[in-house]
């Protein structure tokens, strides 16, 4: 990514790395004020104040700790009730913490006032923001002389739980980018659409991502004098994916990526600029949505929010807090809908002519991920619901599931950000050996480590390393440091002879000004000469999973014999077979692929109405 972004890195506690669908650079979040006129932000008392509580009347400002900083809330009290709650200031994630009719800033204040209780449920998928708001209200209650413990125990009246059956032309499991794209496309073709979503908010992994899209030959590239076209993009992606790629699928994706971005732009998505996946790789074709650029997370809402609004305006319905867990089969084997289970245990059945699975990947499923030894001990921040249940549901009706040879894994330091900020110093594997040109896209480095006996790596540095993330890592107590390479090797459990020989060879190449081993540019050859040495551990973090359901070019789900399962379609991460190899080739591809195949699935499913 652009080097100027690195200068924005905050060297301190904010260096903790947040890893989502496309890791790029870290940066401190900007504090923003919640729009005071937004419906749901300010809520007046709507329930009788019969809780027996006593307050000192007035307005008090409480504070809680959110995902990215303080959440400040103004709470107004009468002598016996909470009468008004205003989320005054926050820096939460757009599309998760705020921005929709289902997000905490818009929902939770009203629920607390209506129930006169702090026992209201958290919104799944946005629990940190919910806890922050409740924490801020608790603070204000204490200031007003109220009893927080009593208020937490006030019962919240809920509608009586009961099973429900809905009728639709098209039903979709999952309200991520693929499911929403499918829903919008189906609705635009005249279908009545219902989406069943596991969490309490939409967006899936996309909302948590950097909000980047991959396309070539775009007007935004032209504005930055970048020459590119779909054929060039196809050739690059094919070169990375190799034999795992379905050429026809990839060609269709490459040829339509720009059109799909224009489609999103019509809904309200705004593109800020274009940047490279790494400064060493051209042409630049990573498109940042508004406010993004070099950020690791928190900008996917710029894509999701306008999609949700468009879907709802088109008459679509989203059923939240419901896990789709069974496909409905007709006697002839065709799929005629699905059923799901709500958090309260009741069931929702949706009868439909076309059914689309868009449930995301399986990075949260430790058992499925266990087949990738290089990811052992991995961390992930994809939604907790990404457990591969869509694969299980489809396999139960005869769908073909492909176990891909890889998943998107990056190796980095979670405390400093080293590994994803274009640091180009010496990186070794767990054997103490150098295995790659470090001056390249982080996933190229990751795959090289994976293929060379490692589920981790080490960035070997001294005080002369120019990278700010490395300099920060050197200040941390948990970064191993030693006065000799041999001693350092012992501290990290690496063969000391191997590491010593690696460092000696690397320094010789640096002195010669030519990397004869891996071809790294001379200006990126950073010698490691002491007098003190450090080893920054690079651990695996997983995001996008590959493979999954096998589909044709129009998103029909296939059985092991290559035959379509009538009425069943799939799109997005649950069905990335043929689109990826064993390496993630470029930021924005997963989201872009979800949009393209989601639209295909929606269009095809709508034709069955």
Characterize the structure shown:
- The chain is 28% helix and 21% strand.
- It has 609 residues and is an alpha+beta fold.
- It folds into 3 domains: 58-153, Sufe protein. Chain: A (Alpha-Beta Complex); 164-406 and 546-607, FAD/NAD(P)-binding domain (3-Layer(bba) Sandwich), CATH 3.50.50; 410-542, Succinate dehydrogenase/fumarate reductase flavoprotein, catalytic domain (Flavocytochrome C3, Chain A, domain 1, Alpha-Beta Complex).
- Helix 4 (177-188) runs parallel beside helix 9, helix 8 (247-267) packs across helix 16 (589-606) and helix 14 crosses helix 15.
- The model is unreliable at 1-21 and 23-49 (pLDDT under 50).
The total number of structural domains is 3
Query: What's the CATH class of the largest domain, please?
Result: Alpha Beta
Mean pLDDT: 91
- Strand proportion: 15-25%
**Which segments are poorly predicted (pLDDT under 50) over 5 or more consecutive residues?**
1-21, 23-49
The CATH architecture classification of the largest domain is 3-Layer(bba) Sandwich
- Under CATH, the homologous superfamily of the largest domain reads FAD/NAD(P)-binding domain
- The tally of helices reads 16
Any idea what the radius of gyration is?
Answer: 26 Å
Strand order of the largest sheet: 11-7-6-15-24-23
Instruction: Tell me the span between the first and last alpha carbons.
Output: 45 Å
Helix content: 25-40%
- Give the overall silhouette: globular
DSSP strand tally: 25
CATH third-tier fold name of the largest domain? FAD/NAD(P)-binding domain
- Return the structural class: alpha+beta
The major pleated sheet works out as: 6 strands, mixed
């Amino acid at each position: 990514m652009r080097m100027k972004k690195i200068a924005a890195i905050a060297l301190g506690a904010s260096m903790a790395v947040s890893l989502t669908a496309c890791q790029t650079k870290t940066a401190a979040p900007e504090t923003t004020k919640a729009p005071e006129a937004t419906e749901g932000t300010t809520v007046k008392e709507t329930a009788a104040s019969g809780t027996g509580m006593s307050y000192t009347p007035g307005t008090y400002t409480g504070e809680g700790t959110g995902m990215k900083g303080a959440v400040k809330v103004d709470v107004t009290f009468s002598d016996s009730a909470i009468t008004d709650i205003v989320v005054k200031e926050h820096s939460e994630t757009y599309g998760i913490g705020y921005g929709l009719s289902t997000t905490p800033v818009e929902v939770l204040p009203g629920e607390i006032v209506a129930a006169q209780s702090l026992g209201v449920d958290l919104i799944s998928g946005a629990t940190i923001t919910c806890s922050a708001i409740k924490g801020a209200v608790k603070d204000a209650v204490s200031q007003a002389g109220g009893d927080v413990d009593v208020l937490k125990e006030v019962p919240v009246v809920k509608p009586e739980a009961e099973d429900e059956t809905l009728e639709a032309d098209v039903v979709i499991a999952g309200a991520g980018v693929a499911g929403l794209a499918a829903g919008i496309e189906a609705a635009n073709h005249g279908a009545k659409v219902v989406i069943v979503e596991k969490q309490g908010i939409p967006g899936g992994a996309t909302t948590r991502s950097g909000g980047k899209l991959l396309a070539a030959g775009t007007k935004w590239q032209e504005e930055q004098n970048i020459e590119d076209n779909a054929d060039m993009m196809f050739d690059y992606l094919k070169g990375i994916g190799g034999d795992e790629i379905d050429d026809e699928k990839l060609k269709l994706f490459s040829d339509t990526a720009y059109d799909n971005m224009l489609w999103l732009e019509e809904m309200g998505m705004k593109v800020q600029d274009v940047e490279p996946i790494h400064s060493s790789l051209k042409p630049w074709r990573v498109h940042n949505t508004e406010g993004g650029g070099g950020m690791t997370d928190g900008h996917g809402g710029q894509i999701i929010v306008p999609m949700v609004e468009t879907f709802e305006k088109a008459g679509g319905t989203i059923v939240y807090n419901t896990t789709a867990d069974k496909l409905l089969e007709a006697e002839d084997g065709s799929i005629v809908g699905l059923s799901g289970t709500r958090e309260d245990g009741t069931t929702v059945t949706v009868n439909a002519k076309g059914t689309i699975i868009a449930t995301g990947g399986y990075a949260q499923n430790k058992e499925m991920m266990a087949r990738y030894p290089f990811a052992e001990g991995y961390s992930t921040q994809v939604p907790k619901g990404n457990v591969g249940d869509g694969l299980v549901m489809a396999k139960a009706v005869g769908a073909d599931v492909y176990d891909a040879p890889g998943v998107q894994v990056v190796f980095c330091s979670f405390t400093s950000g080293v590994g994803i900020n274009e640091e180009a110093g010496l990186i070794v594997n767990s054997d103490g050996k150098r295995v790659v040109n470090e001056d390249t896209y982080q996933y190229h480095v990751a795959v090289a480590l994976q293929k060379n006996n490692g589920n981790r790596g080490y960035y070997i540095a001294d005080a002369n390393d120019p990278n700010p993330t490395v300099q920060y890592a050197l200040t941390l107590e948990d970064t191993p440091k030693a006065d000799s390479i041999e001693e350092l090797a012992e501290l990290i459990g690496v063969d000391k002879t191997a590491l010593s020989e690696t460092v000696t060879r690397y320094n010789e190449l640096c002195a010669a000004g030519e990397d004869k081993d891996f071809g790294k540019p001379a200006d990126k050859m950073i010698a490691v000469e002491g007098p003190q040495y450090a080893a920054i551990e690079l651990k695996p973090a997983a995001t996008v999973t590959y493979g999954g359901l096998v589909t044709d070019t129009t998103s029909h789900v296939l059985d092991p014999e290559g035959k379509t399962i009538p009425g069943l379609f799939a799109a997005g991460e649950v069905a990335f077979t043929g689109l990826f190899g064993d390496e993630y080739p470029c930021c924005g591809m997963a989201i872009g692929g979800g949009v393209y195949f989601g639209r295909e699935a929606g269009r095809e499913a709508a034709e069955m109405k």
